[in-house]
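Lab meeting, item 3. Inverse folding demo.
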């Protein structure tokens, strides 16, 4: 059965963590993001029959998959019986290769990993723009909603996308960051992974960190000035349309 907790609204699933409704947040002008239209998540490869019933109950029509091609093939969606369509919007996790090389060569330190992660985030506005164009086109299409978008952990590629959407909708930056950081509370996919690493190096890899998100938005502002301009120039979507569709008084 669905269990939705206070903001950020968590949808409790048996085979998936970090599944959240982005609705409910207040904007700087006093409006509110509508509930039940946009969800963010980790991958959906472990959904149980009960989970699928929950997604059906939420009315999910579209799943936007931000994972790389190999990731998606390795862990396919467990959505048999759901009528939702899947849109592939791959952002290849190049940072994983760089981190793996550092681990194999014994160069991994907390500072190095944190730097690689920040560089990865700086890439999102430019390298990830084709994928985010697919996502935001779907978000702008009322026929596609309710919609869930996800990557593997629902942390990095998904975290930037959620922060971008909330920023465009006018949610205060402090709240945007709070939503982003909540992955550290609810994502369980890292448990038992990377036992060979010391705690600080492992933390730099698995945590959502405000510095990482700041790096992405600094790159966005350098190239485009603000989120509305980025949305129009890079993603081909009008911010006003999203606000009209996804906000309520």
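The presenter then showed the designed sequence:
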């Amino acid at each position: 059965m669905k269990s939705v907790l206070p903001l950020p609204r968590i949808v409790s699933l048996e085979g998936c963590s970090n599944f959240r409704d982005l609705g409910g947040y207040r904007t700087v002008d006093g409006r509110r993001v509508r509930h039940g239209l946009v969800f963010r998540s980790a991958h959906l490869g472990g959904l149980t029959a009960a989970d699928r019933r929950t997604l059906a109950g939420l009315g999910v029509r579209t799943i936007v998959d931000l994972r790389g091609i190999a990731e998606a093939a390795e862990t396919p969606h467990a959505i048999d019986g759901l009528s939702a369509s899947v849109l592939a919007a791959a952002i290849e996790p190049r940072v994983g290769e760089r981190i793996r090389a550092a681990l194999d060569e014994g160069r991994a330190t907390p500072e190095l990993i944190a730097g690689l992660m920040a560089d990865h985030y700086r890439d999102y506005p430019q390298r990830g723009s084709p994928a985010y164009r697919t996502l935001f086109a779907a978000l702008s299409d009322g026929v596609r909603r309710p919609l869930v978008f996800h990557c593997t952990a629902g942390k990095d590629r998904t975290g930037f996308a959620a922060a971008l959407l909330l920023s465009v909708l006018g949610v205060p930056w402090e709240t945007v960051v709070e939503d982003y950081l909540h992955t550290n509370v609810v994502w369980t996919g890292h448990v038992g992974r990377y036992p060979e690493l010391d705690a600080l190096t492992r933390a730099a890899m698995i945590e959502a960190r405000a510095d990482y998100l700041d790096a992405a938005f600094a790159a966005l502002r350098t190239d485009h000035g603000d989120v509305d301009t980025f949305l129009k120039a890079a993603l081909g979507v009008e911010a006003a349309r999203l606000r009209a569709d996804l906000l309520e008084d």
